[in-house]
Design brief:
mainly alpha, 555 residues, 0% strand, globular
Length: 555
């Protein structure tokens, strides 16, 4: 009897096919990770993509090494499914200790609060920064725009204005808002940790992730920061864990009204906190519908689609009710604005007089001359929105024409405002030399740190305040470069890429689909004004969820 009659041939062919796919995907990781590192290095050193000497050969060598390493780790991990230890000494199959405390959520919630409290007191009244003053002034002057999400403006400004009216203290008012935000974010973190507990992680892992959420500086910064990014990331985190539940047990989820309402609420509130969340969720919908095609029902489709309708209704109603002003097209046009500004900066002599005239009509010359490679604020602030609304055709005609003449200039301009999101050693100091309310950025722009007016920093625990200042705007990343990698969005991006390519290799689509809104959000910030941690806090918040799969078949 032949091998084919026994079915051995087809099984062997299937194994060969799986091995080829695994090598292709590990190769994709190696190529991307190698390219990210070497292109990022060039941008950091030369402000453009430029490889010297044998750098190209070195990059190819690193790509090969990363490919082999990725394949080895994946294979070792797969062998652990059969009782072997990962790398020979890490046991992934040890049964977790049962946790039966009825008040687990209550204890976790108050533990997280207690862990945050020393930092809150050290940074009293909290980190009031990143457009905080602008949002408060919109409420105080009743002059609203769509530049900042109106719901967040009303929550922040309304709370602070009300408490100030009652107490006469701006610090108490700011502190009240920060505490309320902290409670919301902590509740969501508690939900995530409790879900991890229900999925069977051990006691030590629970302690680890609780400390991670309550102590890791990057997370604490945004838990206690007034910027919209904290709440946005928290609602995106809640939506992600609920999508994991939906994927893993669709029937059970669809019979639980409380979970459905939580998913609906998080999917509405997330984009209401930051505009790009809407586009990320909108693109996510077709992928979700394709994934659930075999389990599709009117109720499930409604659950996924209704948040879009509710968001549009609320956004439109808020804009109409508060007569929100001008539309800021430059927020969506950051990349093309910076691309043409870079051409004007470095290749001005190659532009025709007509091209210069058209460009300066949309972007004043005084703003074009302020071009800096890593942040678009000084250029885009002068953008002529009225002209763009009247004549978009000429803008895009100019953009296309300049792209044909200067493709590498365009690529450099885009990468320079985004490479900090995918290059682990990137120096996040995009505001270097800029003076704000209480200091001038010098060593680092990792976090805004300050308290904008009308608030005032009154530290009750100065050593902790000094530590956070050191991490935020000090030389921490230079003094401890290895530890600083843990604070790098570029490193986390590679970790997510590594995990998702492995799951793709295993055809574990259920372990990828719930994270699509996170992935898509990350992709939208690549088109943003600069690279800052505030825009990708979700990478830290969702990290614990990478330790579990989204599909019962892979548990």
């Amino acid at each position: 009897m032949t091998k084919n009659n026994l079915g051995l041939g087809s099984e062997s062919d299937n194994n060969i096919k799986k091995n080829v796919v695994a090598w292709l995907l590990s190769g994709l990781f190696g190529v991307l990770a190698g390219a990210f590192n070497f292109i990022g290095y060039s941008l950091e050193k030369f402000d453009s993509i430029k490889f010297e000497g044998n750098m190209t050969l070195i990059m190819l060598f690193i790509m090969v090494i990363l490919t082999i390493d990725a394949r080895y780790v994946w294979k070792s991990y797969e062998m652990s499914f059969y009782g072997r230890k990962l790398f020979g000494f890490i046991d992934l199959n040890a049964p977790p200790k049962p946790i039966s405390e009825k008040d687990f959520k209550k204890r976790t919630f108050f533990t997280l609060i207690l862990l945050n409290l020393p930092v809150l007191l050290a940074e009293f009244p909290g980190f009031f920064v990143y457009d905080a003053q602008d949002e408060l002034n919109e409420v105080l002057t009743r002059s609203f725009t769509t530049h900042h999400p109106l719901l967040h403006v009303l929550l922040l400004g309304g709370t602070i204005a009300l408490v100030h009216k009652l107490t006469g203290s701006w610090n108490i008012a700011i502190f009240t808002y920060i505490v309320l935000q902290m409670l919301v974010i902590t509740l969501i973190m508690t939900y995530v940790i409790n879900y991890l507990r229900k999925r069977g992680i051990g006691k030590n892992s629970i302690i680890l992730w609780t400390l991670y959420y309550g102590v890791f500086p990057t997370i604490v910064m945004y838990t206690l920061c007034s910027s919209k990014d904290g709440l946005f990331s928290a609602f995106l985190l809640l939506m992600t864990v609920l999508l994991i539940e939906l994927v893993r047990d669709t029937e059970g989820f669809m019979s639980d009204k409380k979970k459905q309402m939580l998913l609906l609420a998080s999917a509405v509130l997330m984009p209401l906190m930051r505009h790009n969340g809407f586009y990320a969720y909108l693109v996510f919908i077709p992928f979700a519908l394709i994934y659930f095609r075999k389990k599709i029902s009117g109720k499930l489709v409604g659950l996924l689609v209704i948040p879009i309708i509710i968001y549009l209704i609320i956004s439109t109603a808020l804009s109409a009710a508060f007569t929100a002003g001008h539309k800021d097209n430059q927020e969506m046009l950051t990349v093309p604005i910076m691309q043409m500004a870079r051409v004007y900066k470095y290749d001005k002599e190659e532009m025709t007089e007509e091209e210069k005239a058209i460009l300066t009509a949309y972007i004043p010359e005084k703003n074009l001359e302020k071009y800096t490679p890593r942040v678009s604020d000084l250029v885009k602030v002068g953008f002529n929105n009225a002209l763009y609304e009247q004549d978009k055709k000429n803008f895009w005609k100019l953009w296309t024409g300049l792209f044909k003449k200067h493709p590498m200039t365009y690529i450099n301009a885009w990468f320079l405002t985004s490479y900090g999101y995918w290059y682990p050693p990137a120096d996040i100091n995009v505001y270097k030399g800029n003076t704000v309310y209480t200091f001038t950025y010098d060593e680092s722009s990792y976090f805004g740190y300050e308290v904008e007016l009308p608030g005032e920093r009154i530290s009750l625990i100065p050593p902790i305040d000094k530590f956070y200042r050191y991490i935020s705007i000090g030389s921490f990343h230079k003094d401890a470069p290895v530890i600083a990698y843990l604070f790098s969005p570029g490193l986390l991006a590679l970790i997510y890429l590594f995990v998702f390519l492995y799951r793709l290799n295993r055809r574990n689509f259920g372990g990828i689909v719930p994270f699509l809104p996170v992935i898509l959000t990350w992709l939208t910030v690549l088109l943003g004004p600069t690279y800052l941690v505030r825009y990708v806090v979700i990478l830290w918040l969702a990290l614990p969820l990478l330790t579990i799969t989204g599909d019962k078949r892979f548990d």
